[in-house]
């Protein structure tokens, strides 16, 4: 059976380290790292994520600000708030939770965030730095950055020459994940909904990353023996076995099947999910260090 990759544990390690470094920074008389999280509307999943981000920021000893805006907030109102946060020296990181209501142009909002405060790593400047291998000064999107840490925990830092298949081509996960694996000298293939014979392609992967948002799509016979499987999906599905109307969380990978083939695999929940928030804290701390010179 596969080794279970305990993302919760690794994330707690990261948060502990961020907390210690924050205390050290404050000891030098620098400003507290400041994180502003902005949420528009009432999407329940987004509310849970945002509350968790704000709570973890406080736990790290950060200055933590949350803007909770009604769904009818105009694009201009949101742009004005971002303008204020861009200009506020107490804020090092700005995160606008996605998705945004459809009357707001999410792309325009993201590109308005100052690149040096873009702790999500979604601004073109940071996307470009990652794409050109300028990893020293880029903010890397939190979910792929966290996934890389988990991969390095099981395979070590040298991933050179390994075959990596990333299933999913989103700007938030698939594309930055592929760029990180490429920067680590993997041979990378990005698969998507039009890919032919996905199962056969997946079976070539030493590192298989699933980020498509389709419950249990990756089956056990898609997994090469000994592969490292990273499941980015978080899908809520009906669980009639738990009682009427009950639900449960599953990933994009059929865990029980895949675990019989994989060398190591992330569970859902408790795998990649906790890493996303931990890496947001790490990015915010890095931003505060840069601002402090
Ligand atoms: N919605 C889902 N994932 C993310 C993320 O990583 N950042 C933001 N801002 N919104 C999200």
UniProtKB/TrEMBL annotation:
Binding positions (NADP(+)): 168-170, 234
Catalytic reaction annotation: (6R)-5,10-methylene-5,6,7,8-tetrahydrofolate + NADP(+) = (6R)-5,10-methenyltetrahydrofolate + NADPH; (6R)-5,10-methenyltetrahydrofolate + H2O = (6R)-10-formyltetrahydrofolate + H(+)
Gene Ontology biological process: L-histidine biosynthetic process; methionine biosynthetic process; purine nucleotide biosynthetic process; tetrahydrofolate interconversion
A GO MF term: methylenetetrahydrofolate dehydrogenase (NADP+) activity
Gene3D superfamilies assigned to the protein according to its UniProt record, in alphabetical order: Leucine Dehydrogenase, chain A, domain 1 (3.40.50.10860), NAD(P)-binding Rossmann-like Domain (3.40.50.720)
Subunit details: Homodimer.
Protein name (record): Bifunctional protein FolD
